[in-house]
């Protein structure tokens, strides 16, 4: 009986592991050659890059550049380069948040499948944590009408996840399991009845179910990871374009958003 409960608990925990491990939004793994070194704030009209020393570079939608409040004289070609650079950031960076949301939704989908299979009704606490995590991602990337992203954003989110959400998820799963023992026992009884009391057959069905959920989660998680890898490739190209911009406009050198590792 303990083995069956452990199998069920492991299946439920699969979702939290997938959400944590596959929802790696740092894009600084072994397969990614770039990482963030500055932060950017994007609105429809302009974008502002801020360095660790609080220096700012503002680029408006006309390709005009302002460094620390001082307008920089540019020729037409340079303005065109900055406009294209801004468009690249507007088109690619928000996809990071989209990938994060996909990871969170994946956890919710897997939990619902477990709940439906075993007729569990005590997963509210887990869903509340998932909702809180989704809100945290929303508030991290979207602030006061702007999309915000960069080194500081990732550092703060990662620290907050480690300090709050990982523990919350584990506690919620444990609580849900304790509250759902009654429902689990009923479900287990029904499953054993269907198996005509054959414990070996029942355990195999449970193992197959756990494997089925895990495989489904992993497949979707792999899809999310592929999107992240593709986006990382886009970031590498943007980093190369930044270098071209900095060569044309030397004052932009210290404001490059990415750096190669």
How would you sum up this structure, described in words?
With 261 residues, the chain is of the alpha+beta class. 66% of the residues lie in helices and 13% in strands. The chain contains seven helices and nine strands. It has a seven-stranded antiparallel β-sheet with strand order 6-5-4-3-2-8-7. A two-stranded antiparallel ribbon has the order 1-9. Strand 4 and strand 5 form a beta hairpin. Helix 2 runs antiparallel to helix 7. The longest helix is centred in the last third of the chain and has 50 residues. It is elongated. It starts with a helix and ends with a strand. The N terminus is likely disordered. Keywords: Signal. Pfam families: DUF2884 (PF11101). This is DUF2884 family protein.
Q: In a few lines, what is going on in this structure?
A:
The protein is α+β, with helices and mostly antiparallel strands and 261 residues long. It is built from seven helices and nine strands. The strands form two sheets. A seven-stranded antiparallel sheet has the order 6-5-4-3-2-8-7. The protein has a two-stranded antiparallel ribbon with strand order 1-9.
